[in-house]
Sequence to fold (860 residues):
Amino acid sequence: MAVDITLLFKASVKTVKTRNKAIGIGFDSTKDEIFKRSRPKGGFSPKAKEVITNITKLKEFLLQHRKDYVSAGSLISSDLTRMTDSERDQIDQDAQIFMRTCSEAIKQLRNEAEKQVMSAQIKEHRGAVLDLVEMYLKGVCKIYSEQRAIRVKRMFEQENQRLISEMNSLVDEVKQIEGKVVEISRLQEIFAEKVLQQETEIDSIHQLVVGATENVKEGNEDIREAIKNNAGFRVWILFFLVMCSFSLLFLDWYDS
Amino acid sequence: MAASVREKQTVALKRMLNFNAPPLKNTAAEPVWKVLIYDRFGQDIISPLLSVKELRDMGITLHLLLHSDRDPIPDVPAVYFVMPTEENIDRICQDLRNQLYESYYLNFISAISRSKLEDIASAALAANAVSLVTKVFDQYLNFITLEDDMFILCHQNKELISYHAINRADLQDTDMEAIMDTIVDSLFCFFVTLGAVPIIRCPRGNAAEMVAVKLDKKLRENLRDARNSLFTGDSMAAGQFSFQRPLFVLADRNVDMATPLHHTWTYQALIHDVLDFHLNRVMMEEGAGAEPSPAGARPKKKSRKTYDLTAADKFWQKHKGSPFPEVAESVQEELDTYRAQEDEVKRLKSIMGLEGEDEGAISMLSDNTAKLTSAMSSLPELLEKKRLIDLHTNVATAVLDHIKSRKLDVYFEYEEKLMSKSTLDKSLLDIISDPDAGTSEDKMRLFLIFYITAQLAPSESDLEQYKKALTDAGCDLSPLNYIKQWKAFTKMAATPANYGNSGVKPMGLFSRVMNTGSQFVMEGVKNLVLKQHAIVFVVGGGNYIEYQNLVDYTKSKQGKKVIYGCSELFNAAQFIKQVRQLTCYLLPPLTCPPAAFNLSTCYL
Fold:
């Protein structure tokens, strides 16, 4: 386990200062402050740091919107947090442009560093620094591409789901219709049966009716004859009676 | 102690490199660049733990040695990781005066003294740079971790604390004090990093005891000052401290002289013995093999290749302790699996190629797209695997060449038999006189092991015979004298030598130390039985054979973790060189033991 002796060091510094004051050696701190360390290569490090801060901004941006982007799609979340697809595309595009600019900046820095003449150690150091920045960028790109992969996968899944549900509803409808058609055919069968039955009955009725008409016609004839006979009989009875009456009358006259 | 020592030291280093703030976990954090300045000590500590790529990922654009020409880079913070020595401090003051960097984060590997701090303060004042010195830290990292459970004290200037330095005849008290201070400082840093106060056990009467006494004193002093104690704080859970104090066993090299000379058969130990292996880095010459170039032909250009054997290399982690034949097989297996995977990828490629012409199988497309994506993403892994396979093939081939040309398997088996006192099928003389088997150094090693492990000293005539055979083979007999003295002394010290079978059944050093140390153990602490963590440290140097034995021993005992450490790592060749130098100090046959072993009377 390591021991932090920084405070001990600072105490030593104080001790040495007081000792030096006592002896009379003073270090002019003010003079040196005016000649602050000349920064010969001021360009490289701040630029590299700038690229890093940019990449960090991108990373934070991606992570911030990650939830919305991926949108686990629970039904509870309000519509405010949902992103439309166009927003997502926008994010994708922006991120890509950003990453491209960052990698361009890194390449530029590398070229500059190579052109500048300096010691081998500084060259190696700068090369390694740029490697680190590139790795960082790759890491952030990985976040982005993972997100995107999830989104694309989710999109396909959604479409899949939609198609499946459509197909399912169609299937249901078709089943229903099928059932109905089957019923109708069954009913038609029954109808046809009944109609056939009725046909035979109607035929027999027809026959009967024809017979009945004939009978009625004959009956009419018979009744006409019977009436005629009746009328004839009546005539004869009438004649008899009249004859009887005349006979009577005659007789009566004769006797008279 | 859930995290290993290696992880703890790596974490400490990473923290330091992040301007002494704990590193953030989130990915894609803004890069902050910095320059790392180290001295050779710092370099040795960092290089087994962090690769250059890891340093780059942490934002370090340049890593430079302190005492090199450095150009001013005025808009960059600099992290220093150096030892607080005179010359380093002077160079830092010079840097401050020359205004090389924008801000300075000074980290000292071990604690810096007040006076040196004031030197820096006055230089900063003179350069009006006090505000630029942003942080000053004592890192307490003055040791080198090579494996999860192995550490050494230092690599630079290791001759200052080597076996030779500790055991030479003309050793002065002041020298010994300095050596002990260095060793104790590093061990103290080790325990601070580990975050635990150990229970110390050591045998009596040699350098190990001195180290133990000093370390104990230093730990007590630190703990007494409860406010500034290094052992409280967020790195340790309270429970860890009270229940799990690890056991720290100190051993002296002189207890076992045979193991450093032993020929070995496990992969890591072989590499260390046969090739140039330091700080987990192998250096080999490529191109020309062991065969001499045909007469008249221009010799093939030899290029030096270095290979790093790291924690990330799964094959290495799995097989570094395996016997060599197993390693060769496993490399073959790995190669086969790699080829199978490569073919799979090629097949996919051809299918995708056909796909463009054949409109038909759209379903096959979707299946293969998934396979292709997975193949593409596993492609870097595949390439890495290939690189490792190539690496191990090269290394194993080089080792194999050495084994074949020097017949190291014969030596290994023979030494095993010697050490386990089983019957020998060949006589020693045969092996020594055999011109094909091994270099003169190998023969010397074998003979020394024979001499050390023999219960009875060989008769004078036998000895003369052996000496003649050795001289014929081109060996230098000087180490023998030292070993004779050593053997005489150890007999007097009456510790029974017990060399178990060091290859297969891992007894060797550790169990013997435990046996001798067990007397002390039984004396006191009851909860020693519950010990789960132990640290074994060899004063005077150690090697990978002992480390491997320890690892095998730990594997067989469930739940126990053992860390191995030594003041320096040497292979047999380096050890013999040191012994040879020691012999130079000796006068012709002494009756009293050399001065080094008077420790028991002087320092008790």
Q: What stands out?
A: The mean pLDDT of chain A is 85. The CA atoms of residues 53 and 133 of chain A lie 10 Å apart.
